[in-house]
Design goal:
Blueprint (H helix, E strand, L loop, with lengths): L1 E6 L3 E7 L5 E8 L5 H20 L2 H7 L6 E6 L2 E2 L6 E2 L11 H9 L4 E4 H12 L7 E7 L3 E7 L2 E2 L37 H4 L1 H13 L7 H9 L3 H25 L3 E5 L8 H9 L11 E4 L6 H7 L11
Helix pairs in contact: 1-3, 4-10, 7-8, 8-9
């Protein structure tokens, strides 16, 4: 049996999967904001809660706990440094520089595996999701940040620096005057793709370009205004679609994936799947673009399912 945990900017979710992929347990709680010790404690508490539930289900306990405790895999919004083992590149900045794996292993008394949350999404969707069986898959999370992962023949591609797929920290390509003011990213550089496409980045640019003090609380507020005929909101969403098309076109030009799978809160915007592929043809270096843009089949559960499979042969915690 496998336990998978998805550590997000706003929620932490755990799932228990049997070897055949059956879901046995699921629980979701809020992420402690900016509090690293509380985050570690919440993760460990979820593992304890899941094991307590499973051990007290007589039908499960005899079969699943007879040999060993369940494995634990965790998807995080960042990566582990191959040099230090500490968390790096996390948009949940309280994690940066922390020995997350060691702290959780010490608390639980067993080995765990950690990978980038977009990697977990990608391997899940390439294995039994929206891109099942496809040779080259680029997985994208557009939510609090803009993570990415690459799967080749259902195996994660892992590079020398543990940053494979980190498209969100490249500059937005084909920058134009109507893209708004230069914005500094939390990584220290200017105009990273994440400052345009993530939920917080989208809101910041909308407030700067359109709202003029009338703060939109969530991306859905902007979308609702567009649906209701607000011309400024519609113009902004159209521009957002072009930002996404440009950013993904640069990935297509390098990776040439068969499918790009979207997950995260903004992946639920249905118009993206029709409008963005129409726009990216302008930027892709080909006379025809066959790459599919699809929504994650498992929705916001793709990351947690992928984390549960981190102990599968061929999938590692190196990224």
């Amino acid at each position: 049996m496998r336990l998978g945990i998805d550590l997000g900017g706003t929620k932490i979710e755990i799932i228990a999967l049997a070897d055949d992929g059956r879901e046995l347990f699921r629980k979701r709680v809020a992420t402690p904001q900016g509090d690293y010790p509380a985050t570690v404690e919440q993760i460990c508490r979820l593992v304890i809660d899941a094991e307590y539930f499973l051990q007290h289900d007589k039908a499960l306990a005899e079969d699943l706990f007879a040999a060993r405790p369940p494995s634990v895999g965790i998807g995080i919004p960042g990566a582990l440094s191959l040099k230090t083992g500490l968390v790096k590149n996390a948009n949940s900045v309280c994690l940066i520089g922390q020995p997350l794996q060691a702290d959780i292993e010490n608390r639980l008394g067993r080995k765990i595996r950690i990978s980038n949350d977009a990697n977990c999404l990608t391997v899940s969707e390439a294995t039994d999701g929206a891109a099942a069986g496809e040779k080259i898959v680029f997985g994208v999370i557009i939510g609090t940040g803009t993570g990415g992962g690459i799967s080749i023949n259902q195996q994660l591609l892992t590079g020398a620096n543990a940053i494979t797929g980190e498209w969100g920290h490249n500059p937005l390509p084909w920058r134009r005057a109507d893209d708004g003011e230069v914005t500094k990213c939390y990584c220290g550089l200017n105009d990273c793709i994440e400052t345009f496409l993530s939920g917080p980045g989208m809101l910041k640019r909308y407030n700067a370009m359109i709202a003029a003090g009338d703060k939109a609380l969530q991306p859905r507020d902007i979308l609702l205004r567009a649906e209701q005929g607000n011309q400024q909101a519609e113009a902004f969403i159209t521009l957002y679609e072009d930002w996404l098309a440009r950013a993904l076109a640069s990935v297509i030009n390098i990776l040439d994936p068969h499918s790009i799978v979207l997950a995260g809160g903004l992946s639920n915007v249905q118009r993206l799947y029709e409008n963005v592929p129409q726009r990216w043809s302008e930027y892709v270096f080909s006379d025809h673009v066959s790459t599919r843009l699809v929504r994650a089949l498992h929705g916001d559960s793709s990351g947690v399912r992928g984390a549960a499979w981190l102990w599968t042969e061929g999938v590692s915690n190196e990224q």
